[in-house]
Write a structure and sequence with these properties.
By secondary structure, the chain is mainly α. The protein contains 23 helices and two strands. The radius of gyration is 32 Å and the shape is flat.
Amino acid sequence: MIDAASAFDRGLYALFSRHADSPRHDRDRRRYRGASVGPSFDVFLARVYGLSWAAFAAVTLGTAGLALVAPPGAVESASALVHDALPVVNRLDAPDVPRTYAAAGTGLVAGAAAKRSVVYGGSRYLLWVASARRANIERTLPGAVRYLRALAAGSDGHRAMLRKVAEQDAYGETAVALRAVLNRAALTGSLDSGLRMVARDTPSRDLLSPFLLKFREHAAQGEDALAGYLRLESRMLSHRQARTRQRATDFLELLAELFIVMLVLPALLVIVLTVMAVLAPGLSASVATPLGTTTTRALLVYGSAGFVLLVGAAAAWLVASLRPPDQAPPSYAGSETLGGVARNATRNPPDAALVCAPLAGLVAAGCWALGYRPTNVALFGYAAFALPVGAVAVRRARRDDAKDRELKDFVHAVAGHVSLGRPFAEAVERVARDVDSGALQADVEDLAFNLSLVTRDGEDVRAAALDRFVERVGTPMAAQTMGLVTGALDVGSDAEDVFETLQTEVGRLYHERKALRSSLLVYVAVGWTTALLVVGIMVAVNGYVLDGFAQLSTVSGSTAGMALNPDAVDPARDRFRFYVVAQATMLACGWFAGSASRGVYEALLHSGLLATVGYVVFAGAGMV
């Protein structure tokens, strides 16, 4: 299979490699170096051109075939449309072209457009990949530089420093770039060459490229110059990161305002349609759909509900994407065995989801048996799944918050002992014995016990003990900070300097997380307020307006000369449609509010709660 693919690539290379030397692809070559998506730009471009010719053949034959088998009336209508739409051409008489020639010409035009689109798509693909890598580098470089600053006090050399950062998956594309530096340095025998080559090829021309060149320059001047540069660069990058977060916050404010408008407008549209249906009989005209016959107004109403759900999903995704990566909600891993799922169902959201999914199916089946409408059956099933899973996630998040709070205090306590000259293991043992670490106490005691094995098993146990501690704590902040200790101490950094940097890093992450949560709670309130506002509007219209229009339409049916539709308003039918739009708004607002709070699992909780509130209000008012 590999040989066949290699032979195929060689054939494409022989046919299309000449395009790689064309000046039109110079920009694509630069993008390719930044995207780093394959072994050779020539091979990649040959594949793109091979795919473009395949698309040309497929689209040409397909379009020509469709033109030949299409009904004559359809072909004539399409030809007339094209003739009338083109300027100058529409002033000339249409020539009588044989159908075979017209089909061939149409196929060739469509095939040429498809071929060009594939080549253009290959160029855009390189741009998208390079842009994604650049964005990832800009997000992860500040943390990597702070890590390098802690490593700079070590004595194992610059390659060891870079290797420690490159081994950390938390630094994303920055770690990938540093691995490329080390690989090229190994091939050329010179770290300077590796730094220069990666600085030339990286997509982050404004950030990583100058950093690598300055790192090379200051490393040549001595350890003190490099440490001073890393200290200054870490501050500069932190300020830049803060400005980026402020811009994201400003954009989020605009998003929240747009979100309110786009969710309130569909509800108002449904009300206006109900009013207009009395005056515009055309809204009640029958429309054939694949699911059966309905009316124009019904399509608009249910289309509005679908639009609201799309807006809610898009807003939730945008909120999640605007959240800083180092402040992202944790991604929980599910248990691998059924016993583990059962034991951890009350503590781990993925396990809770596995347990609650069949229960939600049973709830939906029971509601169906009781005669509820399909919409309510789906909502009850969704709530039966979302509420317990979201509750487990909130409970886990609160426990993780408590651990992060104690982790900050734990690091400060250990740093105090290390500053007095005590070894790291002894400092942890004293903290475990003398300080109450609350939710973190069991994890600290386990770390102290594992570190006590260092004296017998060697220094490698320290890294294993810290890895076990991070795994037991299970929070992103623990993973982001405690790995710094392992790497820095392994390269021979001074323990006091390491813990001074660690205190700064832990304090920064904790306070940034608290500030971010406080700012995002505003958008939780926005989501709930919008949802309750829409419910209030819908209930008020149902209670005080709908019956009046029903009476008006009834009167119009018995009064001569009134051009009103007597069947336009059916209170029971229209109340249910209002209810559907309101519940779609509840779900959308819940997704937005939960994503702003703590991510996907809390989005389930908020949407489930709001859907339940919506049903209780409508059912309590006798409207469903």
